Amino acid sequence: MATTIKEHLETIDNDLAALILKISSIANTISDELPYRRGKADTKNVFGELQLVADKWADQFIIEELRKLGLVKTVVSEEQPDIVPLNDSGTFNITLDPLDGSSNIESNNLVGTIIGIYKEDLPTQGKHQVAAMYILYGPVATLVYTAQNGVHEFLYTKEGFVLRGENMKLPEPGKLYGIGGLRKDWLPAFRQYIEQLEAEGYKLRYGGSFVGDFNQILHYGGIFAYPALIEKPNGKLRLLVESNTMSFIVKQAGGASTTGKSSILDVVPESITQRVPTYIGNKELIEKLEKIF
Ligand code: AHG
Ligand code: MN
Ligand code: MN
Fold this sequence. Notes:
Blueprint: H1 5-8, H2 14-33, E1 40-44, E2 50-52, H3 53-69, E3 72-77, E4 84-85, E5 92-100, E6 112-118, E7 129-137, E8 141-146, E9 152-157, E10 160-165, E11 176-179, H4 188-199, E12 203-204, H5 210-220, E13 222-226, H6 239-252, E14 256-258, E15 278-281, H7 283-290
Parallel strand pairs: 3-5, 11-12, 11-13
Antiparallel strand pairs: 1-2, 3-4, 5-6, 6-7, 7-8, 8-9, 9-10, 13-15, 14-15
């Protein structure tokens, strides 16, 4: 019999296990509901991006379900302009990208949910996470989590989420690269770095959802970046709700992430909406990259 996520969580702190288990059941519902939550919402989020029905619905649904759980004090969400208070007695603070890659909904390509879990008040450095996870609503939905106990992957089946891979490590050497933003807008040094990887035989795989693109790096190794652009030196990805979460996971999987200069997990946030140039993948590739800037 396959190990269920509930069984797998038995070795970690009870409250944290309850929180991750609750998020897994929220993900079941999101996976089931996505076919019925389509179209544009005609509103914009704090980043000026047009929201979809699915973005807003997933945001509300996750926040309300977490409120009922009672263990969460506050949430920082990509779809909310301010920190959302939930339960004063809660011990966890959550960062949330309810639906990542939502521009992929129209074409039915990959989307996901990204969640960072902290005990410290937000905003704080990503290194203070106690757990981090994402759900990929792919051909089969998968859930990846770390509670500082390695990185583990689960498949959504009729029996719920069951263990697929334990203590995952990025394969060495990596095979893939995926980069956001237009090549003409990349910094020249970065363009050269990527040309070198291409010459070494790294293959391009880019899907336009951080969850999907990072998930490939976790399975095949390599590098994903939403880099500093000439006109946008901080790139696109959001430090709190996107980059820190994946950075925490990649470190547990033996990889690394950087702003180009130093670890993303060490960045001291100045606001909840801060963006950060994001380079994430095999440690050796990240170390090499830090030398070019
Ligand atoms: P979101 O859908 O949560 O707004 O995030 C989109 C992000 C991220 O998932 C992805 O890496 C990047 O935007 C893609 O941007 P481009 O469309 O510019 O490639
Ligand atoms: Mn996103
Ligand atoms: Mn999103």
